[in-house]
C-alpha cells in the first residue's frame, strides 16, 4: 500500500539540478513533493550536506507575485523539475490512484451485487 508523504503523496529525489533565476545560475538537490494532481507543492532542499538537514519551501502559486529571490528560485526549480521528472511524477500519481482504488474496490462492490435469473445475470 502506498503511504502518503508528509508533504503530498510522494517525494521524488533530485540531484544537483541547475536552473536560472534573474540571470543567476543555481544548483539545488533535494526532493520534490508531489500532490495527487501531479503538481509540485513543496521542495525540500539539502542545506548543509545530506541527511535530515533540509529546508522545505512551499512552491508559490503560478499567479502569485514573488518578491524575494528564494520564492522565485523555488518557482523556477519546480518548472524545471516538472519537465525533468515528468515520468516519475506520472508514476507517483498513477500509483497513488491505483492504491486508492485497491482500498475501496471489492468483489462484492462490482460483481457480487448482481442478481442471477435462470442462470443469467440480471
From TrEMBL:
Origin: domain of life: Bacteria
Protein name: Uncharacterized protein
Source lineage: Bacteria, Pseudomonadati, Pseudomonadota, Alphaproteobacteria, Hyphomicrobiales
Amino acid at each position: 500500500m502506498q503511504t502518503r508523504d508528509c508533504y503530498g503523496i510522494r517525494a521524488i529525489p533530485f540531484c544537483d539540478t541547475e536552473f536560472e533565476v534573474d540571470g543567476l545560475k543555481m544548483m539545488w538537490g533535494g526532493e520534490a513533493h508531489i500532490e495527487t494532481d501531479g503538481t509540485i507543492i513543496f521542495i525540500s532542499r539539502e542545506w548543509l550536506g545530506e541527511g535530515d538537514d533540509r529546508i522545505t519551501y512551499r512552491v508559490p502559486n503560478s499567479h502569485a507575485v514573488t518578491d524575494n529571490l528564494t520564492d522565485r528560485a523555488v518557482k523556477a526549480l519546480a518548472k524545471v523539475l516538472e519537465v525533468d521528472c515528468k515520468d516519475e511524477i506520472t508514476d507517483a500519481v498513477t500509483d497513488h490512484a491505483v492504491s486508492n482504488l485497491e482500498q475501496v474496490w471489492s468483489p462484492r462492490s462490482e460483481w457480487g451485487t448482481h442478481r442471477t435469473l435462470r442462470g443469467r445475470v440480471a
